[in-house]
Each structure stands twice: as structure tokens, then as C-alpha cells.
């Protein structure tokens, strides 16, 4: 079997199964940023030296002398006696290098409005915004909540906050008032930066009213003193006297003179909330020097970035970690030119993304498997109408990419030749951990394959011992890495319990994985009660607790059922209170889907809600979600012998088939 790139080699995945692989072309390899395989063993011999070398690419106002302090595991300190300003690393230093005229952002609004922002302009705007935030009382050590659409001001706001040594907590614009408030309270944010609204699916989706609702919840009384509002959607909003300010009015008072101060490398940079196995989201804390080192290194090497000629585009929203590391910090630290698009891929039609690639000559494109599958469903005739010949590297993130989607992505978007980097990482890891390097790795569709240089990730058994090639187990990271989560905000104990109690000195990622016979890593999905819906992490427990908060619901169980497009989909089983008269089983589905949307946000809305009389439980009362997952996927129900009442699953299956 051959393709344009030469030979496709066959590799055994596990005994008896052959997997094709695609080595880099000679041309790609020759020009790649990383094309000497010795990087792996050199980094493995002395990972700290490798990372110290990478950190030297940043500008430090005070050089570090100690690379890693791991004297109090699992609390790592990287480059701790060094000082830097993260925003200046993303901005000012590029100006000092004479790159001020380079485009930083090609912004494309959903309605078709565009802005081109150079590094000089972006720096100027961030400096003005930093002065504005100072006037509003923001100081080093503070937290600022950001609830914004995908517009340049979101990036400007993030950089202005960190320029002052404060930390941001970005909350995805799709989250509800309840979720927003919980995050504001946990971080004790005193300022919220938002917009009136942003464009999504051809209309304005309001944001400011949700901020108002959030701050009015629980009788008001939040930590928030000011709300700064960017005008974008032009939708009607109410402004509360003494609390709310328009960005465009305030900013006029400030010029672009602002000297960045250096802050210690372990200064908190941001908190980003993510779902865990319990109801309460975890505030993942990232700090400055180590995070920026790994975000920028991986951005340069994994995507083979050539900042002087590439046009890079990552479709992630800044509300997620991918938007932090690979829209804001990695690309800007590297002086990249990138596209930021406000809206959805289907607006006004499914050609939108491809028309943007054609228009800006995008060379590196990074998106999620769920989006690729959605485009596949629409059909290749759509992207085929556009000139995508500028593409030279493709990336995937968020969930395992199925080989069928991988091949479609490479053939239809990548002209059958672009390398695909399938990047495994997490909110907690801060940056890419496992991925091919496009100039070195013979790619295997569906596998993230190799830990990055300087990263020691492994598949281990329950005892924490590395398994053999051809075997499966749990994914761990064995040594600290620069962009690792430092703690769960305000809850060191939960940090220790969640990630370190299982294996002691190894970080437990929560993912299952296996080695193939070559030792490449294949990710198999979460092993805990965390679902992955469209590449977004959702907690079973969080949705269950939202459901039982509804006055008609007595009990709820939620599972992530396999879904062709979204990877997994939320399926809920509920028992209604016997006394309640409000909901009929038929009305319950609509009402409860809406209820979850209001409680958490549209991303958590169940695909289906089934009203059942009982839930399958073990004799000790534990809900057997595994059986419900089988039922939700229309599969043969697994072993029911440990159930207290073995007839329950038959009743549920009959109910789902509409027979009861
Ligand atoms: O299960 C893994 C899956 O997404 C989880 C992390 O989710 P989150 O913190 O929201 O970050 C997503 C973006 C980095 C992981 O525990 N995951 C992410 N990337 C991949 C993946 N699973 C398989 N292959 C990937 N490339």
C-alpha cells in the first residue's frame, strides 16, 4: 500500500491487528523544527535540563537558577527564583525584536466583520487595558473573571490581567448564571469582564444579562465590585449605576504607556474550572513561568510553527484550556500570526471554516474530532469547493479521534499529505503531553502515540507498574512537568486526593490507555465518572445533582453513551417523586433538559431523559451506571447478577423501547 508520501507501513496494534502508519515525507522532515530523533533520549536523560533550555527562549526579567523544586510533592515549583512578565513575553518582546508590524490576529466575526491586529497594535491595546484595570483597582494577586465571546477584547483582557500580575478565571460563554456565580464565588473575583453579547448561529447571544442574573443569585452579596462590558452584540443591556462600566467609554482615558513588571515564575496566571467526579467543579490553578515554557515549546514543535510564514488557526473557544494554551499563550509567545473566528462552523453554512482557511491562507489548523465528524456527515463536497492547499499541518484534540475521521481529515482537509498531530492533554496538564512530532513520527490514525520530549507518561497496571507492549492499563505521568496544575484553587487536599492518592508519586490522569506492540500509546477514554461530550468534560455527578435539585425529581443517574457525532452524549434516567403532579413522564424530558441547561449550561443538556420506576442498584445501594450505559447504547445488557433486583433492567429496557 502506498500514498503520495511514499510507503504506508503496517504495524501490529495488538496481536493480530494491523494498523497502517504514515511516515513524514522527506520534504516535510527536512524542513521540520524537530527532525533529529535524538531529542527524545537527550530529554529523557535529563528532563530538567531539557526544560531549562526551553525556558531560556522566554524573556526573564530575573533569570532562574533552580529549574525544579520537587521537595514537597505533589506541589511543584518550576524556575521559582526567576521572574518574568507573561504578557510582555507575548507582546513587548516581539516589538523589541522588530516584529511589531507582523499580524498577530486576523479576526473574523460571525456576521462577516473583520479586523487585522498587528503585534504593535495588540501591545498598545493591552497596555491601555492594563492601565484601565489598574484604575479599577486590579492589583497583583487579584482574580478577574472573564465571560466573553471570541473577540479580540477577550485576548486583550486576559493579557491585561496577567500583565498586572493578577490571575484570570475565564468562564465559557455557554455556562449558565448558576455556573458563572459558583466560579466567581470560588475564585473571589472582584471584577468581571464581559460583553453585551456575541454572535452565535446567526444571532446575538446575550452575555451581560447572565452576569446580572449570576450576581443577583443567592440574594446578591457577591465579591464582585465592578463589571466591565465590551460592546459587541449591540443588544439592549441594563447597566447598574456604580457597578457597571462600558469598556469603550472607560478606555478612552488611557494611553499606551505601561511598563511591565517582572513577577516570580510561580505567580498564579489563571484558574480554569473543569469537571471532576464530584458535583463541584475544580479550579485548576496554573502559574506563569513553567506554563508559558511548555505551552510555547509544544506549540512550536508539535505544530512545526514557522512564525514568519505560517498562518495558524485553532478553533477552540478561550473558555477552554485549548483556547488558553493554543489561542492565547502558546501562539502569542511564539509571535505567530493566527486567525480568531467568533462563530460556529455552520454559519451561514458549512463552508464557513473552509472559506476562512482559503481567505487567510491558513497553514496550520487545530480542531476537535467532534467537529471533524460533523463536517464528515455534511459531506466532502463542501470543503472540496474551497482552496485548502495552504494547509500543511493538522491537529486534533479533546478525545480519541476515530481512524475513519482521521483519514477523512487528512484526505479532504489535508490533501492526503498533511501530517495530523493527535494531541493528548488535559486542563490539568496545561499543555500537550502526548503527540506525534510531525517531522519525526510515522503517524498511526487514532493514536496520540508518543510522550513529548521531557515528558514521562506511561501506561501502568493497578499496582502502578508499567505494563508491557500490547497491554492496557491506566495513563500516568511519572515526573513533574513545567505546565502541570499546581493545585485545586483553595483545596490542596482535593488536589492530592484526586490525582496523587492512587499511585503516590505518579500523576493519575483518569484515562485508560494501552501500548501497541511498538510501544505507541492509544488513549481509550475516561475511567472515572467524567464524560466527554464534543470534547468537553462533563461530570456525571454534577448533572445528577442538577437533576435532583428539580422539585419533581427523586433520584437521577446519568451516563455518557457513545454517540456518532459528539463522541459521548448525556443520557439521564430519573425517578420522579411519587407525590408530584407537575410532570408527566412525557413532559419530563423537555422540562428536565431545559432545567439542566439553566443549571449548568447548554453543553450539559441531556440528549435523552428517561423516566423510570427504579434504578439498577447493587445490594449495597450503588447505582450500576455500566448497565444503564449498555441500555442507553442499545446494547445487550451486561451482567446483572449483582443487582438487588435483577428485573429492574428489563423494565428499563422495555421503557426505553417505548413498551411501558
Ligand atoms: O479523556 C481525555 C480527553 O480529554 C480529557 C481532558 O479534557 P479537558 O481537560 O477538557 O481538556 C481537553 C483539551 C485538552 C482527557 O482526560 N482527551 C483530550 N485529548 C485527547 C483525549 N483523549 C484522547 N485523545 C486525545 N487527543
From TrEMBL:
InterPro entries (UniProt xref): Ac_CoA_lig, ACAS_N, AMP-bd_C, AMP-bd_C_sf, AMP-binding_CS, AMP-dep_synth/lig_dom, ANL_N_sf
AMP-binding enzyme C-terminal domain boundaries: 542-622
Enzyme class: ligase
Location of region: Disordered: 1-24
Residue ranges annotated for the AMP-dependent synthetase/ligase domain, each copy included: 96-481
GO CC annotations on file: cytosol
Ligand binding (ATP): 398-400, 422-427, 511, 526, 537
This protein's record includes keyword Electron transport: no
Catalyzed chemical reaction(s): acetate + ATP + CoA = acetyl-CoA + AMP + diphosphate
Modified residues (N6-acetyllysine): 622
Gene3D superfamilies the record matches: 3.30.300.30, N-terminal domain of ligase-like
SUPFAM superfamilies registered for this protein in UniProt: Acetyl-CoA synthetase-like
BP GO terms, sorted: acetyl-CoA biosynthetic process from acetate
Protein task: Catalyzes the conversion of acetate into acetyl-CoA (AcCoA), an essential intermediate at the junction of anabolic and catabolic pathways. AcsA undergoes a two-step reaction. In the first half reaction, AcsA combines acetate with ATP to form acetyl-adenylate (AcAMP) intermediate. In the second half reaction, it can then transfer the acetyl group from AcAMP to the sulfhydryl group of CoA, forming the product AcCoA.
Record-given protein name: Acetyl-coenzyme A synthetase
